[in-house]
Amino acid sequence: MIYLKTDEEIEIMRENNLLVSRALAEVGRHLRPGVTTRYLNDIAEQYIRDNGAEPAFLGYQGFPASACISVNEQVVHGIPSDRVIEDGDIVSVDLGTFLKGFVGDSAYTFAVGDVSAEARQLLEVTKEALCKGVAQAKVGNRVGDISAAVQGYAESFGYGVVRELVGHGVGRKMHESPEVPNFGARGRGPLLKEGMVICIEPMINMGTRAVVFERDGWTVRTKDRKPSAHFEYAVAIRRDGPDILTDFNIIEQALNN
Ligand code: MG
Ligand code: MG
User: Fold this and answer.
1) Whole-model pTM?
2) Cα(96) to centroid of ligand 1, in Å?
Protein backbone atom coordinates (compact mmCIF):
# COMPACT_ATOMS: atom_id res chain seq x y z
CA MET A 1 0.00 0.00 0.00
CA ILE A 2 1.49 3.32 -1.11
CA TYR A 3 0.07 6.32 0.77
CA LEU A 4 -0.26 9.44 -1.37
CA LYS A 5 0.10 12.76 0.48
CA THR A 6 -1.95 15.91 0.13
CA ASP A 7 -0.27 19.29 -0.45
CA GLU A 8 -0.86 20.11 3.23
CA GLU A 9 0.77 16.86 4.34
CA ILE A 10 3.74 17.49 2.06
CA GLU A 11 4.23 20.90 3.73
CA ILE A 12 4.31 19.21 7.16
CA MET A 13 6.86 16.77 5.78
CA ARG A 14 8.89 19.72 4.46
CA GLU A 15 8.79 21.21 7.95
CA ASN A 16 10.15 17.92 9.30
CA ASN A 17 12.92 17.61 6.73
CA LEU A 18 14.00 21.26 7.06
CA LEU A 19 14.28 20.62 10.80
CA VAL A 20 16.41 17.57 10.03
CA SER A 21 18.53 19.75 7.70
CA ARG A 22 19.03 22.34 10.45
CA ALA A 23 19.85 19.63 12.99
CA LEU A 24 22.43 18.20 10.57
CA ALA A 25 23.90 21.71 10.22
CA GLU A 26 24.09 21.94 14.01
CA VAL A 27 25.95 18.63 14.13
CA GLY A 28 28.27 19.89 11.36
CA ARG A 29 29.11 22.98 13.42
CA HIS A 30 30.24 20.74 16.31
CA LEU A 31 32.02 18.12 14.22
CA ARG A 32 35.80 18.30 14.68
CA PRO A 33 38.65 15.98 15.62
CA GLY A 34 38.48 14.94 19.29
CA VAL A 35 34.69 14.83 19.76
CA THR A 36 32.90 11.53 20.25
CA THR A 37 30.02 10.28 18.16
CA ARG A 38 27.91 10.21 21.34
CA TYR A 39 28.52 13.96 21.79
CA LEU A 40 27.29 14.55 18.24
CA ASN A 41 24.21 12.42 18.92
CA ASP A 42 23.40 14.50 21.97
CA ILE A 43 23.75 17.75 19.98
CA ALA A 44 21.29 16.43 17.39
CA GLU A 45 18.80 15.12 19.94
CA GLN A 46 18.78 18.36 21.91
CA TYR A 47 18.31 20.41 18.75
CA ILE A 48 15.39 18.25 17.60
CA ARG A 49 13.69 18.44 21.01
CA ASP A 50 14.35 22.19 21.36
CA ASN A 51 12.41 22.64 18.12
CA GLY A 52 9.36 20.79 19.36
CA ALA A 53 9.92 17.47 17.61
CA GLU A 54 10.76 13.95 18.76
CA PRO A 55 13.86 12.11 17.54
CA ALA A 56 12.26 9.49 15.30
CA PHE A 57 15.16 7.02 15.44
CA LEU A 58 15.29 6.73 19.23
CA GLY A 59 13.77 3.36 20.08
CA TYR A 60 12.84 2.64 16.46
CA GLN A 61 12.97 -1.18 16.26
CA GLY A 62 15.07 -0.88 19.40
CA PHE A 63 17.71 1.56 18.06
CA PRO A 64 19.38 3.01 21.16
CA ALA A 65 20.08 6.60 20.02
CA SER A 66 18.69 9.60 18.14
CA ALA A 67 21.29 9.68 15.36
CA CYS A 68 22.91 7.04 13.20
CA ILE A 69 26.57 8.08 13.00
CA SER A 70 28.74 6.01 10.67
CA VAL A 71 32.46 6.73 10.34
CA ASN A 72 34.68 5.81 7.36
CA GLU A 73 34.18 2.07 6.71
CA GLN A 74 30.83 2.14 8.48
CA VAL A 75 28.09 2.41 5.85
CA VAL A 76 24.98 3.21 7.92
CA HIS A 77 23.30 2.60 11.29
CA GLY A 78 26.41 3.31 13.38
CA ILE A 79 25.51 3.52 17.07
CA PRO A 80 26.82 6.68 18.80
CA SER A 81 29.58 5.72 21.23
CA ASP A 82 32.89 6.79 22.75
CA ARG A 83 34.50 6.58 19.30
CA VAL A 84 36.55 9.73 18.82
CA ILE A 85 36.43 11.56 15.49
CA GLU A 86 39.86 11.96 13.88
CA ASP A 87 41.24 14.36 11.31
CA GLY A 88 40.56 12.93 7.84
CA ASP A 89 37.44 10.97 8.82
CA ILE A 90 34.27 11.00 6.76
CA VAL A 91 31.20 10.89 8.99
CA SER A 92 27.68 10.00 7.85
CA VAL A 93 24.99 11.45 10.09
CA ASP A 94 21.43 10.22 9.55
CA LEU A 95 18.66 11.93 11.53
CA GLY A 96 14.92 11.50 11.87
CA THR A 97 12.22 13.71 13.34
CA PHE A 98 8.61 13.16 14.29
CA LEU A 99 6.54 16.35 14.21
CA LYS A 100 2.82 16.96 13.64
CA GLY A 101 2.20 13.30 12.86
CA PHE A 102 4.83 12.91 10.15
CA VAL A 103 8.43 11.79 9.88
CA GLY A 104 11.51 13.60 8.53
CA ASP A 105 14.49 11.49 7.42
CA SER A 106 17.66 12.80 5.80
CA ALA A 107 21.39 12.12 5.94
CA TYR A 108 24.65 13.89 5.09
CA THR A 109 28.26 12.70 5.04
CA PHE A 110 30.72 15.25 6.43
CA ALA A 111 34.44 15.53 5.70
CA VAL A 112 36.46 16.26 8.84
CA GLY A 113 39.67 18.25 8.40
CA ASP A 114 42.25 17.01 5.95
CA VAL A 115 40.35 14.34 4.00
CA SER A 116 42.06 12.42 1.18
CA ALA A 117 41.31 13.36 -2.42
CA GLU A 118 39.91 9.84 -2.94
CA ALA A 119 37.43 10.24 -0.08
CA ARG A 120 36.43 13.73 -1.26
CA GLN A 121 35.65 12.31 -4.69
CA LEU A 122 33.56 9.54 -3.07
CA LEU A 123 31.50 12.19 -1.26
CA GLU A 124 31.01 14.29 -4.39
CA VAL A 125 30.05 11.31 -6.54
CA THR A 126 27.60 9.96 -3.95
CA LYS A 127 25.92 13.34 -3.64
CA GLU A 128 25.74 13.67 -7.42
CA ALA A 129 24.37 10.11 -7.69
CA LEU A 130 21.58 11.22 -5.35
CA CYS A 131 20.84 14.17 -7.65
CA LYS A 132 20.80 11.89 -10.71
CA GLY A 133 18.22 9.77 -8.89
CA VAL A 134 16.12 12.77 -7.90
CA ALA A 135 15.98 13.92 -11.53
CA GLN A 136 14.12 10.68 -12.35
CA ALA A 137 11.61 11.10 -9.49
CA LYS A 138 8.74 12.31 -11.63
CA VAL A 139 5.17 11.34 -12.39
CA GLY A 140 4.99 8.51 -14.92
CA ASN A 141 8.50 7.18 -14.28
CA ARG A 142 9.11 4.03 -12.25
CA VAL A 143 11.23 3.41 -9.18
CA GLY A 144 13.69 1.55 -11.40
CA ASP A 145 14.42 4.77 -13.29
CA ILE A 146 15.70 6.29 -10.04
CA SER A 147 17.61 3.13 -9.14
CA ALA A 148 19.32 2.82 -12.53
CA ALA A 149 20.34 6.49 -12.54
CA VAL A 150 21.99 6.21 -9.11
CA GLN A 151 23.68 2.91 -9.91
CA GLY A 152 24.88 3.91 -13.37
CA TYR A 153 26.51 7.11 -12.14
CA ALA A 154 28.20 5.56 -9.09
CA GLU A 155 29.46 2.50 -10.93
CA SER A 156 30.92 4.64 -13.72
CA PHE A 157 33.52 5.68 -11.10
CA GLY A 158 34.22 2.04 -10.18
CA TYR A 159 32.43 2.32 -6.85
CA GLY A 160 30.37 -0.38 -5.16
CA VAL A 161 26.63 0.22 -4.75
CA VAL A 162 25.25 -1.32 -1.56
CA ARG A 163 22.37 -3.74 -2.24
CA GLU A 164 21.37 -4.81 1.26
CA LEU A 165 19.86 -1.44 2.28
CA VAL A 166 17.54 0.72 0.22
CA GLY A 167 15.58 3.96 0.17
CA HIS A 168 11.88 3.93 0.98
CA GLY A 169 8.55 5.65 1.07
CA VAL A 170 8.13 7.97 4.06
CA GLY A 171 5.12 9.59 5.71
CA ARG A 172 3.37 8.98 9.00
CA LYS A 173 5.77 6.05 9.31
CA MET A 174 9.51 6.11 8.69
CA HIS A 175 9.45 3.19 6.31
CA GLU A 176 6.52 2.98 3.92
CA SER A 177 6.15 1.41 0.50
CA PRO A 178 7.71 1.45 -2.01
CA GLU A 179 11.30 0.36 -1.50
CA VAL A 180 13.70 2.55 -3.49
CA PRO A 181 16.84 0.52 -4.27
CA ASN A 182 20.03 2.21 -5.43
CA PHE A 183 20.43 -0.43 -8.13
CA GLY A 184 18.05 -1.74 -10.75
CA ALA A 185 16.73 -1.47 -14.27
CA ARG A 186 15.03 1.46 -15.99
CA GLY A 187 11.31 1.02 -16.57
CA ARG A 188 10.90 -1.51 -13.74
CA GLY A 189 9.25 -1.31 -10.35
CA PRO A 190 6.32 0.70 -8.98
CA LEU A 191 4.94 3.61 -10.98
CA LEU A 192 5.66 7.05 -9.49
CA LYS A 193 2.49 9.03 -8.81
CA GLU A 194 1.75 12.58 -7.72
CA GLY A 195 1.72 12.77 -3.92
CA MET A 196 4.25 10.03 -3.26
CA VAL A 197 7.04 10.97 -0.86
CA ILE A 198 10.18 8.85 -0.95
CA CYS A 199 13.63 8.85 0.60
CA ILE A 200 16.39 8.41 -1.96
CA GLU A 201 19.57 7.47 -0.15
CA PRO A 202 22.56 6.10 -2.06
CA MET A 203 25.09 4.20 0.05
CA ILE A 204 28.22 4.05 -2.08
CA ASN A 205 31.45 2.21 -1.26
CA MET A 206 34.91 3.22 -2.46
CA GLY A 207 35.72 -0.47 -2.90
CA THR A 208 33.42 -3.42 -3.50
CA ARG A 209 29.71 -3.41 -2.70
CA ALA A 210 30.05 -6.19 -0.09
CA VAL A 211 29.00 -5.27 3.45
CA VAL A 212 29.12 -6.94 6.86
CA PHE A 213 26.52 -6.59 9.62
CA GLU A 214 28.32 -6.06 12.94
CA ARG A 215 27.41 -8.07 16.03
CA ASP A 216 25.96 -4.98 17.74
CA GLY A 217 22.87 -5.74 15.67
CA TRP A 218 22.95 -2.41 13.84
CA THR A 219 26.20 -1.19 12.33
CA VAL A 220 26.77 -2.02 8.67
CA ARG A 221 30.37 -1.72 7.42
CA THR A 222 32.20 -2.42 4.19
CA LYS A 223 33.68 -5.89 3.98
CA ASP A 224 36.97 -4.55 2.58
CA ARG A 225 37.00 -1.77 5.24
CA LYS A 226 37.30 0.93 2.59
CA PRO A 227 35.24 4.10 3.16
CA SER A 228 31.55 4.44 2.33
CA ALA A 229 29.38 7.53 1.85
CA HIS A 230 25.66 8.14 2.35
CA PHE A 231 23.44 11.08 1.40
CA GLU A 232 19.65 11.08 1.79
CA TYR A 233 16.91 13.37 0.55
CA ALA A 234 13.18 13.15 1.19
CA VAL A 235 11.52 13.94 -2.15
CA ALA A 236 7.87 14.57 -3.00
CA ILE A 237 6.65 13.59 -6.47
CA ARG A 238 4.71 16.62 -7.73
CA ARG A 239 2.89 17.31 -10.96
CA ASP A 240 5.64 19.76 -11.99
CA GLY A 241 8.56 17.54 -11.00
CA PRO A 242 10.54 16.37 -7.97
CA ASP A 243 10.23 18.56 -4.87
CA ILE A 244 13.23 18.02 -2.54
CA LEU A 245 12.01 18.50 1.05
CA THR A 246 15.53 18.38 2.52
CA ASP A 247 17.91 21.36 2.13
CA PHE A 248 21.65 20.62 2.01
CA ASN A 249 22.33 24.36 1.47
CA ILE A 250 21.48 24.90 5.14
CA ILE A 251 24.19 22.39 6.07
CA GLU A 252 26.80 23.64 3.61
CA GLN A 253 26.30 27.29 4.55
CA ALA A 254 26.83 26.35 8.21
CA LEU A 255 30.07 24.56 7.30
CA ASN A 256 31.37 27.60 5.40
CA ASN A 257 30.85 29.97 8.31
MG1 MG B 1 17.78 8.20 7.06
MG1 MG C 1 15.85 6.64 5.15
Assistant:
1) 0.98
2) 6
